[in-house]
Amino acid sequence: MNKSKLQQELTSKIKPGIKPSDLKKQKKNSQFNQQLATPPDSPILKPVKTNNSPSPIVQDTIPLPQGRPNGRGVKDQIKDLQSALQKQHEVVITQQKKLTQSEERIKDLEEKLAQSVPKPSQVKPPEKPPQQTFSCSDCNQAKPHQELSRQFAHHSFCRSCSVKARKAAERQIQEQPIQFTCHTCEKNHHQVPTKMKLDQTLQEYLICSTCRPNVKEFNEADLITDELWQKYPYSSASEILEKEFGIKRRSE
Predict the structure, then answer these.
(1) What is the spatial distance between Cα 225 and Cα 243, in angstroms, rounded to a whole number?
(2) Which of 4, 84, 104, 125 is the most exposed place for a label (fewest CB within 10 A)?
(3) Is 124 inside any structural domain?
(4) Whole-number Å distance between alpha carbons of 181 and 151
(5) How far is CA 137 from CA 43, 110, 130, 167, in A?
């Protein structure tokens, strides 16, 4: 190459702002791109023979077609199934016979047990001990021992006769005149007084026959207020008096 041609080539490539070293880099990059653009030829692949026969496991699972010497026919398989079914049927019949025999044996044992156990009607109830009684000396009647009220020496009295005797004694005591001072007129009297409750203390005062018509007796029920009725909604008047004031009902 002449100097003139080289100079012309350089002047055509060199432009303002481009260094000679940049030209060398551009030349190397162009050579590298040419190498990448033309890849090497790939080797020719030859076909390889492969063994397409199935594996031994697959060969065992595949049913053999009919007519082969080592295979069985469908009729033989049906006969085998029929014989197995017949055996199962015989086993079921045998088990049913055993079950029937067991049920009959249980029934016989139940009958023997029912015969050995006595019926409720045959069982005798326990004998009750004889009830203790006594003869009341007043009414001359035989009474159970629970109604015995009093005993004096060889005399026994029942509860009802004792109540009657007590009431008769109280009437005799009330009818006898006594010496007392009347609470109202504060005078001494010799007569049968009248016992009356005049205040909330519920104390019984002796009243003469002259003051009796003019005196009003205090009623115990007046002690029960509305608050007490609300406090004891299911109680009677006597129960409320006993709970709140300690007033007990008189027993006969």
Answers:
(1) 14
(2) 125
(3) no
(4) 39
(5) 147, 62, 22, 18
